[in-house]
Design a protein that fits this description.
3-stranded antiparallel β-sheet, 40% strand, mainly beta, Immunoglobulin-like
Length: 147
């Protein structure tokens, strides 16, 4: 049997207990419960969340006004009656993260995919926020310039 001891984890647990924090199963205590990357790719933003061990049917996405909420639940493993847990370090329970979408993004056309424990969202830039040509009228005719 393999058992790993981390003295800093135990110190962190004791500190949380002393100052009123919790370290209960189902409570995510890390600063970034869902680490994410976000970048612009052409006419869209791509946001990727790490959700290892989360089933696709345990993920909820919601957009209200300009706030995108990702909610996920990591469920305990299905084990038999004779199984005795020796080490349980993986956080379980429900956790969420919110991302504020700027006015230049189109929350109506968000696309989501989930593969290999990574939730990827593609958020297109709104049409009204894209650069466009504006016609300028002159006595000699019309001229197009970039806005």
């Amino acid at each position: 049997m393999l058992i790993r001891t981390d003295p800093f984890r135990e110190l962190d647990r004791l500190t949380q207990q002393f100052f009123g924090g919790t370290n209960n199963p189902g409570t995510w205590t890390r600063p970034n419960p869902m680490p994410m990357d976000a970048y612009r790719d052409g006419d869209q933003y791509v946001v990727a969340f790490d959700l290892p061990g989360v089933a696709a049917d345990a993920i909820e996405l919601d957009v209200e006004r300009n706030v995108l909420t990702v909610k996920a639940e990591r469920r305990p493993p299905e084990v038999g009656e004779d199984v005795e847990m020796q080490v349980s370090e993986r956080p379980l329970g429900v956790f969420s993260r919110q991302v504020l979408l700027g006015d230049t993004l189109d929350p109506e056309r968000v696309e989501a995919s989930y593969d290999g424990g990574v939730l990827t969202l593609r958020i297109p830039i709104a049409e009204q926020a894209k650069p466009r040509k504006i016609a300028i009228s002159t006595d000699a005719g019309h001229k197009q310039i970039d806005a």
